[in-house]
Amino acid sequence: MKISFQQVSQSFPLQGGTFTALDRVSLDIEEFVTVVGPSGCGKSTLMNIAAGLVSPTSGRVAVDGEEVHGPGPDRGVIFQQYALFPWLTVRGNVEFGLRLAGMPRARRREVAEHYIDLVGLSDFADALPKTLSGGMKQRCAIARAYAVDPKILLMDEPFGALDALTRVQLQDQLLRTWSSDRRTVMFITHDVDEAVYLARRVVVMAARPGRIQQVIEVDLPYPRTEEIRLSPEFAAIRNQVWHAVYHQ
Ligand code: ADP
Ligand code: MG
Q1: How many distinct structural domains can be found in the chain?
Q2: pLDDT tens-place string over residues 170-181
């Protein structure tokens, strides 16, 4: 599936005037795209518009040609702050969307089991979120998003709060899953290494007003491996992205 941002602008009222958070952003996303840029450049706003949580001031977003008017089951959203239902167990959280979709109980259990296993939380299926580490909560949020099988994943700094090792593990797991389903992913991060490691294309944004500064192709094969992560080719692209972000 394809997400198309067409001349998307967003402004907010500010001290009697207006503040332009996004200025005519046009972008097509298929496959795996990461978005990097300084704090406040409008990354989350752009993703919330794609999620249908925010309406743009002008311009439009379409999914396979259909204009987005609100959230939908075709788009799974994962935020940095887990956003799990605290009163539900891991299993309850993962089953939640399936129950909303009217899936029968036995089938729901089966599907939830599959995704809980996929993210390595089988031993914690009956645990409440408050008893889990940050990494485990985020695994649960990922399983919950995957369970409803959205064609598009929208991820807003999903690994931003995690330690470096957990982050690398979740990156690899995300890529493993992605290589079998090849769904469309829009992944926001402020980590340049993460942006390059995951993506086919890195979109670099600039602030004031929020806009696309540069789109950098990551011409590295999948599956991405540690060898690729440590290669001179990777370093060259990382440096290019770094430059675009920090010396724009
Ligand atoms: P990023 O995710 O890149 O850090 P955001 O999309 O969160 O940036 O925000 C972009 C800019 O828009 C910021 O300056 C932020 O303060 C402003 N902004 C975001 N949402 C609102 C809102 N609802 N009202 C006013 N200003 C907002
Ligand atoms: Mg943000």
Answers
A1: 1
A2: 899 899 889 888
